[in-house]
Amino acid sequence: MQKRENLNQWNRRNFIRSTAMAGGLVLSSSAIGKAAPADAEELNIAIIGIGAQGQQLINTCMKMTGVRIQAICDIWENYNLKQGSRILTGFQQEHKTYVDYQDMLAGEKDLHAVLIATPDFCHAEQTVACLQAGLPVYCESMMANRLDDARKMAQAAKETGKPLQIGFQRRSHPKYQYCLDHIVNETKLLGEITALNGQWNRPVQTDRGYPRRSPLDEAVLNKYGYRSMQQFRNWQWYRDLGGGPIAELGSHQIDIFNWFMNTPPKSVYAGGGTEFYDTETHEWDDTVMTICEYETGKRTIRAFYQTINNNSNFGHYENLMGDQGTLYLSEASGRVKVYREPSSPDWEKWVKIGILQAPEEKQEQKKEGVITIEESVAPPSYNMPVTFTDPVFQPHLENFFHAVRGKEKLNCPAEVAYATAVTVFKIQESIQSGMKIELKAEDFQV
User: Fold this and answer.
1) pTM of this prediction?
2) Which of 167, 307, 382, 437 would bridge 245 by S-S if both were Cys, CB 3.0 to 4.6 A apart?
3) What is the pLDDT confidence band of residue 27, given thresholds at 50, 70 and 90?
């Protein structure tokens, strides 16, 4: 193997990537249409949904070149919309505001793409309408809160030929890509994968409130599918509006399992319940523990996942465990590492050619000159030579905008995200039925 040079400068944009199960969606400029020429100086985009996530998208886009936010849309006109407009004004970005997305589509004739950050139950209607209007779409995860709606989104992308990127942003994260390409696939440092686990634990949180001087009118709430401001502000917990923590949080990490295993699971079984919060305002389970079984041809590999919403122990991460090492993944800065099993071959050669950085424990021991009991039994951990300091959403948005220009494959096209949606919905079904759910290849076909 030739020595790799300048891996610290590893460029995510130029790296040729696999999109795992379903492959990437390649769109030429001719397939995209005249509205988005590859050499356009700026892409004119609109954002639907200007809550916390929508505002993060605004701030991230404003750090990027070649993107102009031309319009924003939100039904909470006297709060969310004002907040988004204030952010854009601070960036000296001229823009228009809309309350209804249909008015926006009718009024903006030179858009190149739309970003959607509304509650899950809105995604299908808004995504399909934008795609049918000839506009590529970046839609936040989950795809939808019902499987039929997720299928409609994927079908609309296929029928229109327009890019549809779903917001599983880890698929564009340079460290995740590096680990899959170099640690798991190329060098096979983990050996044979034997198990996976992951979690997203959160501390006790009060329900989101709202400024009492600027609530939405009851008629507006009812028009857009909400019964109250409580529902509007905490939609993730209601069965008709969202999918609960296993969808909001867990889908991102279950997507990692599917991606790194290069296949969806053959079965799922799960338990959960609303054990801590008020069941009238938290209809979805606040505690979920599930096992996904993957078939690799040689053996069954089990992935354990949990989301707990009353304790934050160790936050969120994913682990891939093999007979020669363990890969520890997280979006949290500095937590991506690989641990060598004591019985595995020496990894010094991978350090020498730049695949890994030297074990931290050895460096610390040399510096301090003292080894604690914990350090003496802990396996050595290695970092990867990849530096990433951008907002976590930026690479995924960049990938989408490059796809709009016809220059890249989508890292998470609709058919890939659909497989994750199926997995999550089947986990919910298993919780409700108390039974193990067997899955077939056709279950994941759009």
Assistant:
1) 0.89
2) 307
3) very low
